[in-house]
Amino acid sequence: MELAPRPVWQLLLLFLGLSTGAVLNWPEEQGKEVWDYVTVRTDAHMFWWLYYATNPCKNFTELPLVMWLQGGPGGSSTGFGNFEEIGPLDSDLKPRRTTWLQSASLLFVDNPVGTGFSYVNKSNAYAKDLATVASDMMVLLKTFFDGHKEFQTIPFYIFSESYGGKMAAGIALELYKAIQQGTIQCNFAGVALGDSWISPVDSVLSWGPYLYSMSLLDDQGLAEVSQVAEQVLDAINKGLYREATDLWGKAEMVVEQNTDGVNFYNILTKSSPMSAVESSLEFTESHLVRLFQRHVRHLQQNALSQLMNGPIRKKLKIIPEDCTWGGQANNVFVNMEGDFMKPVISIVDELLEAGINVTIYNGQLDLIVDTMGQEAWVRKLKWAELPKFNQLRWKPLYSDPESLETSAFVKSYKNLAFYWILRAGHMVPSDQGDMTLKMMRLVTQQEEGGPGWRV
Ligand SMILES: *[C@@H]1O[C@H](CO)[C@@H](O)[C@H](O)[C@H]1NC(C)=O
Ligand SMILES: *[C@@H]1O[C@H](CO)[C@@H](O)[C@H](O)[C@H]1NC(C)=O
Ligand SMILES: *[C@@H]1O[C@H](CO)[C@@H](O)[C@H](O)[C@H]1NC(C)=O
Questions:
Q1: 79 CA to centre of ligand 1 in angstroms
Q2: Alpha carbon 163 to its chain's center
Q3: SS3 at position 140
Q4: Which domain holds residue 250?
Q5: Could you tell which of 63, 357, 359, 416 is best to mutate to test the pocket of ligand 3, judged by most ligand atoms within 8 Å of the CB?
Q6: 230 and 301 share one domain
Q7: Total number of domains constituting the chain
Q8: Do residues 209 and 176 share a domain?
Q9: 217 partner at 20 to 30 Å CA-CA among 30, 42, 170, 289?
Q10: Is the pLDDT at 277 greater than 60, yes or no?
Q11: Ligand of minimum distance to the alpha carbon of 125
Q12: Taking Cα atoms as reference points, which of 194, 159, 198, 172 lies closest to residue 340?
């Protein structure tokens, strides 16, 4: 379904009195937006929302198309990524100064099915592994590009966050194959993995040393965190992925107890009171629910949920009455339990071998997917050019050219680039909007010094 933008006064009439508190005013300037559902399998319906780039000097046809994938699994791109990170409006429906829409058209997809406004009709229709997540997305992308031929030749990039990075890797590889086979018409130009869950055990193993170096663990705490991290490693080495997911949850509790409740998403920001309460609970059978609460619920806090289930669903018009934004997210997470801790380093190797441009970016203050852990799995790549990449020196980046404050470092060789984003936690665009927008422009070849940069 496609809807032309409506006059602002009409939207105001629609929403007056319907918001749950603050009065929401839609900004005057709105570009073209379209959205729809695609049935990707029997009983599995995926929701997407496209914004055409709004640049005062450039037609959207001169700018790339970026698909954004949220984490969780179960976090909503159309909600969290859109309104909290990179979309044209923030969650108060105020224009976002650092929106990526000024430099790209944006495609938000609620995946896996059951996430955000996506839904399943039968409980056996949830995705249980990355292969299903990727094949579902191929159905969506084929439908999208067949129906929007104007985007078939525009450079298409996938950007992602957290578990979305793991999905992005799997999806990128399937998309590459589909293009080779001629089943999807698309100018695929690269994938960017943000604070991505590529090798979970490398994250867990680096939690101790990272926290210790940041004065967030004492000697005893370091020993305890390292001990439980070894248990996670052991389970993964034995291929016991469900058990590894349990132990991962246990490792988080050990971290919380030893750090006075550090915030896993930004170690310099105190976490919400919720997790302090939870850390005092015993580790119980309901650990998956608890993990969900910690890692997905924060992506759909009350205010965002009220926005999505209030004014936004009214605007979209096509959301089934009995479908609640975020209502099935818990099931999405639980169904992926067996896949959660599986590494996909070999998929990144396949992407690199295939010549696909791969960008890795990570927030300096992220704990859940800390930068040390990312560097650890990058060292495990079998890619033949890796030694040359490793020999390179990094280069500083400044989001404000007038400022002496370093915003990031970047290193790039052939089709691999790594961005170290300073003063950012897990949600890099929320914490460092200017630098992340600049990075997106570098990755998509809109600024000098991007992946093509050499020492
Ligand atoms: C932008 O490009 C499209 C497709 O080529 C064209 O139809 C449209 O008129 C252009 N818009 C402007 C404002 O130039
Ligand atoms: C599928 O689920 C949606 C959302 O809950 C609902 O509106 C629709 O009626 C269901 N369809 C069938 C065939 O059960
Ligand atoms: C991929 O990266 C290479 C090397 O950095 C660069 O020259 C090329 O333009 C990039 N391609 C795209 C489509 O971004």
A1: 29
A2: 6
A3: helix
A4: 200-296
A5: 357
A6: no
A7: 2
A8: no
A9: 289
A10: no
A11: 2
A12: 198
Q: Pull the structure tokens for residue 310.
A: 């209030």
pLDDT tier at 438, thresholds 50, 70, 90: very high
For residues 337 and 243, the answer to whether their CB atoms sit within 8 Å is no
Tokens of 364: 């300096």
| Each residue's pLDDT tens digit, 114-147 | 999 999 999 999 999 999 999 999 999 999 999 9
Yes or no: say if 411 and 396 are a contact pair by the CB < 8 Å rule: no
Domain stop point among 246, 273, 296? 296
Point out the domain boundary residue: 296, 316, 340. 296
Strand partners, 37: 47
The answer to whether the beta carbons of residues 271 and 263 sit under 8 Å apart is: yes
For residue range 166-217, list pLDDT tens digits in order: 999 999 999 999 999 999 999 999 999 999 999 999 999 999 999 999 999 9
C-alpha 178/C-alpha 27 separation (Å) is 39
Q: Does the beta carbon of 445 lie inside 6 Å of ligand 3?
A: yes
Q: Is the CB of 57 under 6 A from ligand 1?
A: no
In ligand 3, the atom with minimum distance to the C-alpha of 451 is 5
Note the pLDDT of residue 253: 95
Q: 451 alpha carbon to ligand 3 midpoint, in Å?
A: 6
Cα 168 to Cα 65, 194, 228, 310, distances in angstroms: 15, 10, 29, 30
Q: Is the pTM of this model over 0.85?
A: yes
For atom 9 of ligand 1, the residue with the nearest CA is 59
Query: pLDDT tens digit string along 217-234?
Result: 999 999 999 999 999 999
195: tokens are 């604070």
